[in-house]
């Protein structure tokens, strides 16, 4: 019997429907900017939070009771059946996974690889029968105790080797399943104290690891993007992949900025002291935007709570910068989000995704409406209009400091401040959300 027995495929019923298991705003077939909404948003379900997480938190253990917990290969098959049932119910076009989410932990690397390949066989069969595509795969190199001091940045070269070999097998699996990206999330690539850390060495090793991954991608003909997911503070106090700016500086230093893009998460942006739209806009401006993990944090908690999105204005501003930058190419909207530990039922898991997809659809349509209106772009053009003049362009291209000083004296420049008009722009945004 299916874990989701009795739950019908979710249909679009419109904003007037009061059915909690229906889409009120997400209509996958609605044409927006010349494409189906499904093709714009490219929703994906995260295997880990939806099917591997047991409902624990830092102060308490497991609260969920799933039929695939506490088992080996057969339990992994049952989990896969449940996952693809939910993908079908939601109609999501993609899913994402870590290796440890889908396979049992083996006694050694060889057994891990066999276990992963056995599940990939199952995935391949289900995908051929009409299951969703793979948005991205990744390797979990942070949960097992071997990675307590990192993977690529571990002081033990054997751990580096184990991690590198694991990424190879996961990249092989991702290519085999037609994955459109491969994500590297350095959950413990950082340090707790400089008393036992050689930071320069660790950064060099991390760069070497990434170069190995990029080289292997090209060797096997993997056409997807390699993505890094910035993550500050948690679990390592000083993360080398803290935010967009930090990761871009690292990529630039080691000559990887044209090979690696970024997978950005709303919750991680908040932990870094940024807004989600800031991280997206910066990645777009630097040419490294790839994909997003959509969730939210509890703003009263100081850690990554990975809740499903429910704030339309925040989501709208995030999609505004995505659509303004041309939209997704290989990336998409992955729900890196989990239930609250008191939400125990199968229906809760479906309802959470339905709500998240609706919030994203509302935010996306608001973002498109803002762009089509052009009010924010007009305000920006007006604010920077002075830079279109000949004197301003000369400062950027040919003038020296001496030239600029002479012109200031000659023209008697004594500028007065001009309003930034922030409140008027905030009011403008609120017209759409």
Overview of this protein structure:
This protein has 433 residues and is α/β, with parallel strands linked by helices. It has two domains: 31-373, Alpha-Beta Barrel (TIM Barrel); 377-430, no CATH class. The chain has 16 helices and twelve strands. The strands form three sheets. Strands 3-4-5-6-8-10-11-12 form an eight-stranded parallel beta barrel, surrounded by five helices. Strands 1-2 form a two-stranded antiparallel sheet. The longest helix is centred in the last third of the chain and has 28 residues, at 346-373. It starts with 30 loop residues before the first strand and ends with a helix. It is found in: Cytoplasm. This is Xylose isomerase. InterPro entries: Xyl_isomerase-like_sf, Xylose_isom_bac, Xylose_isomerase.
Name of the top-level CATH class of the largest domain = Alpha Beta
Rg, Cα atoms, Å: 24 Å
Instruction: Give the proportion of residues in helices.
Output: 40-55%
Number of helices: 16
Structural class by sheet pairing and helices: alpha/beta
User: Number of DSSP strands?
Assistant: 12
**Which fold name fills CATH's third level, the topology of the largest domain?**
TIM Barrel
Could you name the ranges where pLDDT drops below 50 across 5 or more consecutive residues? Answer: none
Helix and strand run: EEHEHHEHHEHEEHEEHEHHEHEHHHHH
Strand content of the residues, in percent? 5-15%
Name the CATH superfamily assignment of the largest domain.
Answer: Divalent-metal-dependent TIM barrel enzymes
First-last Cα distance: 42 Å
User: What's the average pLDDT?
Assistant: 96
Question: What's the main sheet like?
Answer: 8 strands, parallel, barrel
The CATH architecture category of the largest domain equals: Alpha-Beta Barrel
GO molecular function: magnesium ion binding; xylose isomerase activity
InterPro entries: Xyl_isomerase-like_sf, Xylose_isom_bac, Xylose_isomerase
Main location: cytoplasm
Cofactor: Mg(2+)
């Amino acid at each position: 019997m299916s874990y989701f027995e009795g739950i019908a495929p979710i249909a679009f019923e419109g904003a007037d429907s009061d059915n909690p298991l229906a889409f009120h705003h997400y209509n996958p077939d609605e044409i927006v900017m010349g494409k189906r909404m499904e093709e714009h948003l490219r929703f994906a379900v995260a295997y880990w939070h939806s099917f591997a997480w047991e409902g624990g938190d830092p102060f308490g253990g497991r609260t969920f009771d799933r039929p695939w917990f506490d088992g080996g290969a057969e339990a992994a098959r049952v989990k896969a059946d449940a996952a693809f049932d939910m993908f079908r119910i939601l109609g999501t076009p993609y899913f994402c996974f870590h290796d440890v989410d889908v396979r049992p932990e083996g006694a050694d690397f060889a057994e891990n690889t066999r276990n992963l390949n056995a599940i990939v066989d199952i995935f391949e069969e289900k995908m051929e029968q009409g299951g969703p595509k793979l948005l991205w795969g990744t390797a979990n190199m942070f949960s097992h105790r071997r990675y307590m001091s990192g993977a690529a940045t571990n002081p033990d070269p054997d751990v580096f080797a184990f991690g590198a070999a694991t990424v190879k097998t996961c990249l092989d699996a991702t290519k085999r399943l037609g994955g459109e990206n491969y994500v590297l999330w350095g959950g413990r690539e950082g340090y707790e104290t400089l008393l036992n850390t050689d930071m320069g060495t660790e950064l060099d090793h991390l760069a070497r690891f990434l170069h190995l991954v990029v080289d292997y991608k090209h060797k096997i003909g993997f056409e997807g993007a390699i993505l890094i997911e910035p993550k500050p503070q948690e679990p390592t106090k000083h993360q080398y992949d803290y935010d967009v700016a930090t990761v871009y500086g690292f990529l630039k230093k080691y000559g990887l900025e044209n090979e690696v893009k970024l997978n950005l998460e709303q919750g991680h942006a908040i932990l870094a002291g940024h807004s989600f739209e800031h991280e997206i806009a910066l990645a777009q401006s630097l040419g490294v935007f790839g994909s997003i993990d959509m969730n939210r944090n509890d703003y009263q908690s100081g850690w990554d709570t990975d809740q499903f999105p429910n704030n339309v204005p925040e989501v709208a501003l995030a999609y505004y910068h995505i659509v303004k930058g041309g939209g997704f190419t290989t990336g998409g909207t992955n729900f890196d989000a989990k239930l609250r530990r008191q939400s125990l039922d199968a229906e809760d898991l479906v309802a959470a995704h339905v709500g998240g997809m609706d919030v994203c659809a509302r935010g996306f349509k608001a973002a498109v409406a803002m762009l089509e209106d052009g009010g924010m772009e007009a305000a920006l053009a007006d604010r920077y209009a002075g830079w279109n003049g000949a004197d301003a362009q000369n400062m950027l291209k040919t003038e020296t400091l001496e030239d600029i000083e002479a012109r200031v004296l000659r023209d008697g420049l004594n500028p007065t401040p001009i309003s930034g008009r922030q409140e008027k722009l905030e009011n403008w945004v609120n017209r759409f959300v």
